[in-house]
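To close the chapter, one final illustration. This time we ask the reader to focus less on the individual chains and more on the assembly as a whole: which components sit near each other, and how the overall shape emerges from the parts.
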Amino acid sequence: MSSVLEVTDLTTVFHTRRGLVRAVQGVSFTVNRGETLAIVGESGCGKTITALSLMRLLPMPPAEIVAGSVKVAGTDLLQVDDATMRRMRGSEIAMIFQEPMTALNPLITVGRQIAEMVMLHENLGRSAARAKAVEMLRHVKIPEPERRAREYPHQMSGGMRQRAMIAMALACRPKVLVADEPTTALDVTIQAQILDLIGDLQRELGTAVVLITHDLGVVAEVAQRVVVMYAGRKVEEAPVAALFADPKHPYMRGLLASIPRVGTARGMASMDERLQEIPGIVPPLNELPAGCAFAPRCKLADAHCRAEAPPFEMKAADHAAACWKS
Amino acid sequence: MSVTTAKPRSEPGWASELLYLARRYPLGVAGAIIMTLFVFSALFANVVAPLDPFSTNPRASLAPPGGEYLMGADVMGRDVFSRIIHGARISLAVALGATFLGSGLGAALGLASGYVGGWFDLIVQRLGEIMQALPLLVMALVITASLGPSLTNTIIAIAIPLIPNVARVIRANVLSLRELPFVEAAKATGMSELRVAVVHVLPNTLAPLIVLATAQLGSTILTEASLSFLGLGVPEPYPSWGRMLSESAAEYVRTAPWLVIFPGLAISAVVFGANLLGDALRDALDPRQRD
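The assembled structure is written out below.
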């Protein structure tokens, strides 16, 4: 299989008044053409910082990518100059954001915003770019695309705006699409439509998708492989079925146990049984413990866990985790 | 198929669009009419004015309004109405020129200062504060005194003190705008920083800019009056509203009030008209307010 996106040992830090905050530490993953990789974890675990590091959109300073490489079709995005990076953004690697309500400029028509982006990357005139914008809106199944292209963002619903964002992101057929919680702000029914749409376009264009989410239901539905992050580190990586069937890291087990199940014998029998939770909170990233970052919250943790960070290693075929106890 | 369905709802022509806007913003129409009247009389002052604004007539000194002198005559017997019409040239040139120049430079500086940030922002803002510490008139005085009195220099002298005020407001606006997701999204499409700033950030600061500019229009006319009164503005005998007002205010307000009332009315009407037009423009230019 041909990998389109190869992230190796990505390490992003923030220089703050309280010292160095290691937001992303040595994260590696690859995504193949047409594949969806999900990055999951709770708030503050470094998912979004990973995404913005891939796009090189973090404000530097205070952020700094201190190590690693991000290769899109062989080109290391962390090594190219700013002008090259601008050309790559949108044409090779594109991004859609969490807030469809504010991710479009309120003063410019949706069609023009897409056309602007097309003209930036492709040698097209204004009218050809406009035609392409309408074509893209039709592609993301927006009804009456000619009329909608002339409308302003406030005239569209949240779901429709997210479709427009997807149209913009995919207009220049990027090889990689980074989707940062693309459905979090939407209704459940619209969520499903948007995920289906991304899946359809992905199959058609062969785009590799990096899906960032904290919604395990979404992961189970659309991802082929999953990376679990905790406190800036990758703690588990596996194909989606293997991960849900047999999670190796206690953190992932805790996450799965904290999802309410409908219709299982246990759920039906005892309504008063408490839903499981993971005790404690994510430690502040500038005060990480010496050993395993999850140890303070882990039921299985012992002296070894607290003293030495576990290596990220294979626990089964194609299933790796960082835990001494599995 | 989709073309035919789109047609009945297609964009209306500019005439019907204008009619719709006029019905939606009647006050804006009033402002536009006032401003058009003034610009018209400024451009065609020679045709509109019934008398020569410069010719004196000792027998008509301080003649009250009515008869030949519609708005009365000043102490030298010059027709006030004709002088107001000719004065529109200078007052409007100064007001519009200084407001556009000051607001334009201020907006550019505020955009750069807010968007670039860091030490550049720090230096620009401290320099602006130093300028703001001096009263507008004193600043303008120093500038005209060093440049010499003329129409262009008056415009420059009045525009420069406006720059820090505008720059501050625009900077504050840009600081909040640049954190909005659509700015990041624009960068994610591969736009350069300059283009993001000009295409995506600047137009979103238009509303406060228009309000600020129309509010300043009146004060520029009055500053010009003060400068002219001190002999540093537009030189005599060219009439300017501000000087007509300030020269006669102290001396004739009791004996010949028309010398104060009519230039004052002209200034008020322009400021009022500009504010009405500005408010309507601000709303009409914002797509969110349109339907």
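The first helix of chain B runs from residue 2 to 6. The interface with chain A takes residues 2-3, 5-6, 9-11, 180-182, 184-192, 199-200, 203-204, 286-288, 291 of chain B (CB under 8 Å). With these observations in hand, you are ready for the problems at the end of the chapter.
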